[in-house]
Design brief:
This protein has 114 residues and is mainly alpha-helical. Helices cover 82% and strands 0% of the residues. α1 crosses α2, α1 crosses α4 and α5 packs antiparallel against α6. The longest helix is centred in the middle third of the chain and has 22 residues. The chain is elongated, with a radius of gyration of 19 Å.
Length: 114
């Protein structure tokens, strides 16, 4: 179950980064599935397609997104930057940096990692 949730979360993140690169139909199916949380059957009904056609479009879109990530690595870079930001926040908190400097540093780190 956890693997399924992680897979869906990862696909959603890929969609956030690379969704604009998908075809119109792939983009529509991904948005309905990952953003609107519709089931494949619900999407099929909305689009007037078979459930199998929606499943095929979804898988094809997810494979395209994974291919973009393999080539560009934006999601991996984002995750790494988030981890580094968390480390920096911990260092700021433990170093005893006085206000308002600690808040200013955290704000700058937050802007960099957005």
């Amino acid at each position: 179950m956890k693997d399924d949730i992680e897979r869906v979360e990862y696909a959603s993140m890929l969609y956030d980064f690379y969704g604009a690169l998908l075809s119109e139909s792939q983009n529509e199916v991904m948005a309905l599935y990952h953003e609107d949380n519709l089931s494949l059957s619900e999407i099929a009904e909305d689009l007037g397609q078979s459930r199998q056609a929606v499943h095929y479009t979804l898988r094809k879109a997810e494979k395209a997104l994974e291919s973009y990530e393999e080539k560009l690595g934006l999601v991996a870079s984002y995750k790494e930057n988030q981890e580094l930001a968390a480390k920096a926040y911990r260092i700021i908190d433990s170093a005893g940096i006085v206000e308002p400097y600690a808040d200013k540093l955290k704000k700058i780190i937050g802007e960099i990692t957005e």
